[in-house]
Design a protein that fits this description.
InterPro entries: MFS_trans_sf. With about 130 residues, the protein is mainly alpha-helical. It is built from five helices and no strands. α1 packs antiparallel against α2 and α3 packs antiparallel against α4.
């Protein structure tokens, strides 16, 4: 995802911007799911409700990232330079956080993929396709 941020800055046609936004959004969704899974595992180990704090920190991080981009461009940095600064910060944060992640494994009897039910399709996919 971090690598796609500069691509958003240099996309020069609607098609390339659309593809870059679709990929960026897809990777962001994958990241959010992975972070929520990790938060659930941490919460299980601590036996204390922590999920709202994790979501608050995610929001604070988004606000911080937007503030850094705004500050960089206000100080005269180009969109590409600002995106590269954001990319560098994301990569540094990822490297620093990697050693602190839990190592968990799927249960042996748990399926790796579950086919969505009709109810899931109606409640998630159909409404999102209307926009």
């Amino acid at each position: 995802m971090a690598v796609l941020l500069p691509v958003l800055a240099i996309a020069n046609t609607p098609l390339t911007l659309g593809v870059a936004l679709a990929l960026f959004g897809g990777f962001l969704g994958i990241l959010e799911v992975a972070m929520n899974i990790h938060a659930v595992e941490v919460e299980k180990l601590d036996s204390v409700p922590l999920m709202s704090g994790f979501h608050a920190h995610f929001s604070i991080g988004g606000f911080f990232g937007a503030s850094v981009m705004t500050l960089a461009m206000t100080l005269g940095a180009s969109l590409l330079a600002s995106a590269l600064i954001g990319t560098a910060l994301m990569l540094v944060a990822t490297v620093l956080a990697a050693s602190r992640m839990l190592e968990t494994r799927a249960q042996d009897d748990a399926p790796l993929f579950v086919t969505p039910t009709d109810l899931w399709f109606c409640s998630q996919v159909w409404p999102s396709s209307c926009f």
